[in-house]
Amino acid sequence: MSRFWKIALIVVAVLVVGGVAFRLMHKPGEAPGTGSHHAKASQNGGPPGADGQDKDNAPVPVTVEPTVRQNVPVYLTALGTVTALNTVTVNPQVGGQLWTINFKEGQTVKKGDVIAQIDPRTYQAAYDQAVAKQKQDEAALATAISTLDRNQKLVASGYVAALNIDTYRNNVNQLKATVVADEANVRSTKVQLDFTKIISPIDGVAGIRQVDPGNVVTTSTAIVTLTQIQPVYVIFNLPEQNLEAVRDSFQGGVNKLEVIALDRADAHPLDTTGGLQVVDNQIDTGTGTFKLRAIFDNPKSALWPGQFVNVRLRVNTVSGGLVIPAQAVQRGPDGDFVYKLQSDKTVAMQPVKVASEVGDSHVMVSTGLAEGDQVVTEGQFRLKPGSKVNALKPGEVPPAPVASDGKKGKQGGRSASAG
Fold it and tell me: Is the pLDDT of residue 39 over 50?
């Protein structure tokens, strides 16, 4: 084949391929330059992405509350331990067989109650002997005094020598000393006899008894432990940097600082409000803390020795502090912030500094806000700086975003969470 025909065949093949490609790209009834994007746009009734833009521009429903001023108590918090006002382990003061136990375990006993009885017969006999000995010596003393008086009258008549009078006088003095010793012995044996009745030394609650009736006990035998819990102590520690604030407010006990004991969940107070009683006189170098002790009346016995409680010590009251709901405060990479409502119904990210908690649901802020500023308390997760919002009143909860809204948002080029 000649060169001319080869070139002609190549040109024909190129023309055929080009025609087929042209037919595939341009279907009948469709104007050149149109495509599937145009059909999709006409299907939505507007330009591409119009639905997503309308969704993004819609105001976000949020709940807002104003910043208010009020007197805010300033509390220091710590973990405390309940300690009995007095704890006494009752031991017999004399030995013998334990006859009776006169208390029930867990029962409240009063000071002076007889809580146990030891066999008193041996001590009763010793007491009776001491009393008899005293009477015997008193009778001998009376005889000696009578003899001395009679012989002193006979000295002047010469019937008795003056030397013998000294003997009679010394005998009287000796018997007087014997009687005094007998009186002391009687008191001693009476004390030993009284010790057979074991008396409660305090008002308190009886624990589990350590010995049963019928056992022979000694002075080292523990009968029971009594604890006085009305009133009761709560001991807790605070960091040393709080020492100056506590001492300035306490002023050596002149001011009664309020102390609240709460349960482990910080849900509610366990008892009536107590008062700070003592600030310890030294700082623990190992922990960098100092010890404090508060006292509670504990009328319902809600505080129990050995119990762990959360303690709040009120050291001051801030007059006119700025207070907002705690849920309005968000944590960001640069610190705490709130979404603040602007006059044009948009929100701005406002940094704040939280000074202290106010109850369980509010906080006091020291910087970043002014009285009356509106802050977002519900719906923050849908916001960003500059977002338009529909401000709802306190108590009105904004509706949760619909799942389909998230899909449309993705088509418009923004995820639902970012909106």
Answer: no
The one-character DSSP state at 242 is: G
- Of the candidates 313, 370, 314, the one whose C-alpha atom is nearest the C-alpha of residue 66 is 370
For residues 59 and 298, the answer to whether their CB atoms sit within 8 Å is no
3-state secondary structure of 191: helix
Mean pLDDT, range 261-272, rounded to an integer: 81
Distance CA 389, CA 347 (A): 7
Q: 10 Å Cβ neighbour count for 290? A: 19
Please report which helix (H) or strand (E) contains residue 245, including its range.
Answer: helix 243-250
- The tally of domains found in the chain comes to 3
Question: Helix, strand or coil for residue 136?
Answer: helix
Residue 267 and residue 229 in one domain: yes
Identify any residues that bridge with 321 across adjacent strands, giving them in sequence order: 70
How far apart, in whole angstroms, are the C-alpha atoms of residue 2 and residue 219?
138
Q: How many Cβ atoms are within 10 Å of 360's Cβ, its own excluded?
A: 9
Kindly report the number of other CB atoms within 10 A of residue 395's CB atom: 8
Question: How far is it between the farthest Cα atoms of the chain?
Answer: 198
The domain in which residue 382 lies consists of 62-70+320-395
